[in-house]
Amino acid sequence: MSQAERLHLEDVYVGQRFESRQHFLDADQIKRFAAEFDPQPFHLSDEGARGTMFGTLAASGWHTMALTMRLLVESVPLADGLIGASTEVAWPRPTRPGMTLQVHSEIVDIKPSRSKPDMAIVTIRSETRSEEGNVLQIFTARMPVYKGRKSAQR
Amino acid sequence: MSQAERLHLEDVYVGQRFESRQHFLDADQIKRFAAEFDPQPFHLSDEGARGTMFGTLAASGWHTMALTMRLLVESVPLADGLIGASTEVAWPRPTRPGMTLQVHSEIVDIKPSRSKPDMAIVTIRSETRSEEGNVLQIFTARMPVYKGRKSAQR
User: Under an 8 A CB cutoff, do A41 and B66 touch?
Assistant: First the structure.
């Protein structure tokens, strides 16, 4: 994407939507992430998940979040990058092997900074959904977004 | 850790603290995580960070979070696992190569479930700190915690 296509503060609005590409998640990816970052039995094997609230292998929530971030970086082209000031993450349903993830994002709030006239805090709400449309994760982030240089020079 | 040492609802209390081991983070780990999950220039190289709010290479916040989860799994021995119902994550300072991370956690709230007498929602607040004691990340998670089988049989 060229710099011209990237979004500054004057290009974003409440209600603006973004849709990512799809990512296919298999059991190997789930087990590899879990072994490094979240080695709980239910994230490592079907056997380990037996008798737990998951029943069968489920991805670490942080794996779903990391994949969501990858898809967000590709689909929400903010000129100064996606830098979360504060965030919330919740997982209404487990992420399972064989699912195809897609991230649907919407700008839900824009709060101009009181101290910095060229900046606002933009709130983006992102749902990570399975192919069937089930919501696996809800991610809300507040991010600083700046006016472009051109508009600052006007 | 044996099952006997793992904590059920009757073993936890507000004010209870946990301290993880330390994890040394180098530039290679930061770049590898970013290449897979958060490929923004400031997470990939010093050159890419020049002229951004980071100035030099900084870890993805989700890398700090994933490492925090690893350290939490090892240091907060809840019997039924660490399964976040809803969470908040914020990063007061960037995580940099060469830092040694440690997670300091405290149980800050226990809310008995109205519908399930053997369960409560336990809120854990975890600070991920550098060796110098600077807070890099504040993570708050609400997790279901269950009574042990013994006490349920009483």
Answer: no
